[in-house]
Each structure stands twice: as structure tokens, then as C-alpha cells.
Amino acid sequence: MIVFSRRQALGLLGGAALVPLTPRPASAAETWETVLPAASFGSYTAFHARWNYLYPWGDQHNGAARMYGSPTDHSQVSLSGGVLTLTANRLSQPDGKSTSHPHAPLWYRSGAVHARDLIVVNDRFPAYEIRGEFQAPTARGCWPAFWLTGADQVWPPETDVLEYVGKPVNLFNTWSDHDGRPDTAEVVERTPVDMPALGKDPGTWHTYRVYIQKLDATDVAVNYHLDGDFYGNPGYHRGRNWVGVPMNLIINLQMGSYASFEQDEPWLNDPQQWAQQPGPTGPVSLRARNVTISRTRVS
């Protein structure tokens, strides 16, 4: 366990498939049930019943894209053939600056959605499985993510099931609080997966999965899988103080910001670089299909 700032953690690379440390066995009284079915991208009617547009808190976050999408605006969030497509387009000039640190200039229009159902690990629902298949852009300036974070803007917790930050390296991250320390010193367990080193192209379909299970009164085990293989640190990650905390499931195609620069560049102090926000000039897309949430219920 190492304490990092979020900016430091995003620069770490490497990782390899390892054998998971198995959490406690499920009780015989637990039965699995589907919370979010795989068919939610099958039509706009099904989608609107299960998903909301934008982030839970609005149209901006810590990147260089403002999110768009509504039942009447499918320019950045669209469905076809059971596939959700989020598209980012670069603007001719920034549309202001993000209200979130580090206040990136908003060079892009893009898309984000979040599931209507919340994930809450507790005594009644002690285990969850969240999975989906994705084609992800990973060029410099692209920041796609499939992740959970605390509802009502409570952070942490956070688990990144898919996160590429301007490189073809997926970051399995588990963020927990650290005894009241400030946000710049949260506890993060991370398992980076270098996709080209494994002969994998993130732009083709891959299955990303997280299994979260209650360990004790406060903590959960977090197991990450990519295409059926387990990736750990070296075993399961530990979500500290996650029990009973509601979490949102989010899919977004963020752009710029941390994804535009190498982590050792002094870009925060370079106004010219910061204003340019290196990234794709043409449209890029994140595609998702067969996204599901399942959980166990204690009878």
C-alpha cells in the first residue's frame, strides 16, 4: 500500500497478470440477481430507463471536455446495434474552463452517462459484479473511463475498471480514504496493464470486470479482470471504508488535462502548453456493449 496523489498515480506504468487472493466465500443464503441487464443499450427506451446523461454532478469534471447528451441530443451519446458510442469533437477554441481542478480549458465536446442504479455493498448486498465490453481510444489527449465513485460527490471511494490516460495502459485503480487526510494524499492501490505488451489493442473489443465483496464491517475486496484474466496488487485490492457508501457507475470519454502530457512535464506551470491541450484534432469515440451490474442478495 502506497500513498499517492492522483496526478502521481496516473504516471505509473507496468503490471502483470497474477493469482487473486480469494475473498471470503459467499454465504449459502446469498443468491445472485441482475441489477442492470446487458440489453440496456438495445434501444433508447431501454437506455433511458436505466441510464442518465452527463455526470451525476453535471457536464464537467477534471478534463478538457464539456459533456453533452439528452433524449433529444445524440450528437455525443448515441446507440446503434446494442452499442453505446461516446464521441469527442475538438472545438476551434475552448468553451471556457472546467470548474474542477486543474481547471482545464474546455477544448472538446464529448459524452458521459451514469447508471440510475447505485452500487452499495452492505450486509444485504455483500457482493457486486460490474462488467462491460469496450473499444477505447488511447491516443495522447484521450481519457476514457468505466468507473465507480461515491454518490452525492463523496470521494473517495473510486474504482477504475477501465481508465486510459493518453497511453495504451489500462489503470485498475482503487481509491480509499486515509484517516481524514486531504484529497492530495488519498490511498490508491493500482495495477497498470500495458496492453501492447500483452499483444492487445485497446481499440478492439475487450471485457473489463470488477468483483467487489464485503470483507468486514468497513472494507471490501476489489478484484479486477481483463478478458477473463485477474490483475492484482498482488492479490485483490482493498476498498477501505467502502461498506455502506453508495456509488455511481459512470462511462465517460474525458479529454485533455492529465491525458495530454507526460507526467514529468512541468505543464501546470507552462501556460502555453496548458492552453494548447494536446489531443486529437478529429473525432474519437469510446464504444461499450453488454454492460451489466449483478449482485448477491442475502435472504
From TrEMBL:
Keyword Translocase: no
Keyword Signal assigned: yes
Record PROSITE patterns: GH16_2, TAT
Swiss-Prot/TrEMBL keywords: Signal
Residues covered by the GH16 domain: 29-279
GO MF: hydrolase activity, hydrolyzing O-glycosyl compounds
Superkingdom of origin organism: Bacteria
GO biological process: carbohydrate metabolic process
Signal sequence region: 1-28
Name of the protein in its database record: GH16 domain-containing protein
Organism taxonomic ancestry: Bacteria, Bacillati, Actinomycetota, Actinomycetes, Streptosporangiales
